[in-house]
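Subject: mismatched residue count in predicted assembly?

I count 911 residues in my input, but I want to confirm that the predicted structure covers every chain. Input:
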Amino acid sequence: MSLLTPELLRRLEQFQLLAARRAKSSAKGERRSRARGQSVEFADYRNYVAGDDLRYLDWNLFGRLEKLFLKLYEEERELPVRIFLDCSESMNFGVPRKFDFARQVAAAIGYVALCGFDRVSIVPFPNEGENVTTAGALRAVRGRKSSLQFFQDITRLTCGGGANFNEALRRGALEARQAGVAIVLTDFLDPTGYDKGLNALVGRGFQVNAVQILSPDELAPGTYGDLKLVDSETGTIQEVTFGKYRMNAYQQTVQNFIQKLREFCSSRGISFFSVNSATKLEDLLLKQLRASEVWA
Amino acid sequence: MNFLAPAAFAFAAAIPIVIVFYLLKRKRVIKLISSTLLWQRFLAETQANAPFQRLRHNWLLILQILLLLLAVFALSRPYFTGTAKSSRLRVLILDASASMQATDEKPSRFEKARTEALKWVDSLKDEDQMVVLVAAANTEVKQSATSDKGALRRAIESCRATDSPTRLREAFQLAETLVKNQAERDNPEIHLFSDGAIPNLGEFENKNLPLIYHRIGERANNLGIASLDVRANPDNQAQRAIFTSIVNPSTNQQSADIELRFGNDIVETKTVVVPGTNTFPMAFVASQPRDGIFTVRLTGNDDLAADNQASIVSILPRPVKALLVTRGNRILEKAIRPVPNVELTVVSVLTDDAPGYDVVILDDVTPVVWPKGNVFAIHVIATNLFTEVSKVDMPAIVDWKNTHPLLRFVSFDNVFINESLAVKPPTWGVSLVDSTQTPLLIAGEIDRKRVVWLGFDTLQSRWPYFISFPIFIQNVMEWLNPASGSASQLTIKAGEPFRLSLAEAVGSAQITTPDGAVKNLSLEKNTRELVFGDTTKQGIYKLHAGTNDLSFCVNLMDAAESDIRPREELPIGKFGAGIAATRLQRANMELWRWIALAGLAVLLFEWWYYHRRTA
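Triage response: the counts match. Full output below for your records.
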């Protein structure tokens, strides 16, 4: 399956992930950081002390003041981008499949990051089965030349089993050596909730972007009558009598859920997007993410 | 506890249907979905966690309220007062005459009338009363005034149509009495369910009876036998001539086969074509070996079957012993002698009651003892005949009844009378010839013996010079012949009682009716006369009483009854106006049945709607 069209890839190349915070990575990259180092961007002056590299003395200043000052430049560091991808069974539903949509978003964000010479890690959860090796390959990918392998690895990911969202995010936050940008791609339909996981990411210092992917059938069910609904992950059975007359009430429930999630995110500085898996990928990537300055 | 409509319990049959609906298990469709999280939230939000919720627009709720309203509405038993006025007393008169058996209404006019009458019973209000009368030859009170619908229904359902002609006089008199006793404000009404084939009811004209006439019937497709008579063939005394007439009341020409039977043997069959609204006379000639019954039957297919058959008892003529008591009347004697089967004896004085003679002719001679046989009394004053006798000179004849057998082919034109006895019309007979002052000829029965009384001496008139005189004498001899008398006794009209004089008293008698039923009559001791009243069905009845075994015939033979045209109005309205057939709807039509039906429909719709919505 082709994750992204060449046309889209070409458009994505023009973007760069925006990071509100200075990069904290120790590895060199193309992101401005608080660290002083060698780059073309002037940062500050400091008094010369013996042993400093004479190449960085500001001789013009010495001429005027007859004091030695050393010019300091900003060190450019890389930006770690962690993409949390929900691979649970619930993502296996919907037409088009929610998981397919999530992988496309992950690939697009990852490609933008790779083009920006940032380090990209994809964290699938639950991490089990075949995904374990793939997840290893998807850890800390760098550079545009790795993009082809990156896409292939993403395509290999499968979804199944039950996920523990909070645990996966908490673990992911702890594992990261440096905080960076975190993209969370999930449906947020976890019975244990989502607040602990997101809190853990925010607390670790990540700049979190959450994308909720729901299938059209979840937004407006097309099955009516006396139903016995079985939860794909937990096996919970829910009996419900549903008809067109309750559609409005159901949609109101979904909107309430999304609104609550949105309020939670905005109170913690998390950019939140809720998309239908049937929406056009370009619409999300080129308009919504750009409008909310995930990238520019 | 009583129920006005016990039939409503039949609705209980609907209960199992409802139960079956609920027995149907709701089969849930199993569906695997990504997560039940949203559904749990949805159910938590929509299900009531408070006892009350805001009332939402829900069609099911509206339907259920509608259903409840309908049920309450039905239980309140509303009704329309209709176009009929409310009436505290209704007298229902069902015409049960022969014409009501016509099958132009299905299944018959009488059944239609019964159905209509039952509708009026249904619409009866609790405090109103109804009377049911059945009018045929006699009027029967089937149910006196009551509000009990069950009793009224039973009364109407027990009514049967008869083969007898309509005699509404009695019914109207009875109804009039009932209605008169009611206060004016109660609006008493008389409802007549009839086809209107009713003889003259002149005495009820201008009485302003509150009569409502429900016309039953559609057309007049009928051929009927209107008369039947048998007598010796004038051309050949050894044979019998059977005269009959067929009436066609419809405006179309009709034809039918007519067959003559003697006993069970077919004698002759003819085809008869009767023009519209005409009566067609027919004659058969047949030899008759013994006493028996001639039956005429129409084999056409018309609406009324009761008038398609008539029977008559024919008794062979026997020699009659006649005694002429006269002071000398050659003309009379000459007129009597040629009459067939008469053995005439002439005397001038009668001292005893003339035993051994069948007929006694008293020509201006008053006997010491009244003769035992039939009597032809000419110019005789006898105390057993009249209470008061005077004389009148030159009475002018103004009218005579030439329909009577005595005056058949007899005319009184140019007959002048010098002097006559003047009497008042007696109770035992009918006047056949009338002058301005007195009846001149009276025929009747006294002690079951026939009497013909002529008020004037034939020699004191010009009558003996006319041809009508010997014809009259022949008629008299025939009419006074005991055989013809007994034969005519054995042929009666439907609804009339059958009477028979018995030679000796018998304790009981059996009568077999035309439909084969056997009725036992118990007679009182020393009763010399047998009377049987249940002659509503036409046909041949068989009687067995002691040593007597005989048959008698009951016929409709009524041209007015054969005329089954439904009449648009009855000729008894005020100032000569007719009472038109009504289109009146029955009053107080109860609605609860329809409401209940509507409720059922709403219930079914609700059920369908619920399932359609969740499907």
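The interface with chain B takes residues 89-94, 98, 187, 189-191, 215, 217-218, 223-234, 236-246, 249-250, 252-254, 256-257 of chain A (CB under 8 Å). Marking this ticket as 'not a bug'.
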